[in-house]
Amino acid sequence: MIPWSPTTPKIYHLDIYLKEKHKVLDHLVYKIGFRHIEIREGSLWLNGKPVTIHGVTVVEGVPLQRKPRFYVTQAKSLNANAIYWPFPPSPEALDECDQTGLLSIVGLPLWNTPGVFLQDKRAITAAKAYLANLQLLIQFHPSVLSISLGSGFDLGHSGSLSFLQSVTSAIKLPPGTVPLMAGFRTTDFVPDAEALIKKASLGLIYLNLTDFRKSELTTVVQRWRDILPPQTGLLVEIGAPYIQSRCNSEDVSNFETQQAHNIQQMLINLNQDQVAGEFVLALADWRAQYPSILTPCNSLQIFPFGLMNQNCKPRMAWKVVQNFYRGNSDATLLPLELGNSEDEIFILWGFGVLILFAYFFRRDYRFRGNFIRVLVRPRGFFSELKEARKIFLSHSLLTVFIAASTLSLILAGLFYHLRESVLFDFILSLFSIHTDFKRQLVTFIWHPTGLIALFTLGIMLCLSVFAGYLKLLSMLANRFVPLRNTFTFIFWLSGIFVFLLPIALSFVRLINFPQLHLWSFLLIMVFVAWFIYRIFIGIQIMCDLKPGIVAIILLSSLLILTLLFYWAYDYHISIKAHLGYLYHIWKYGHF
Question: What is the pTM of this model?
Answer without folding.
Answer: 0.57
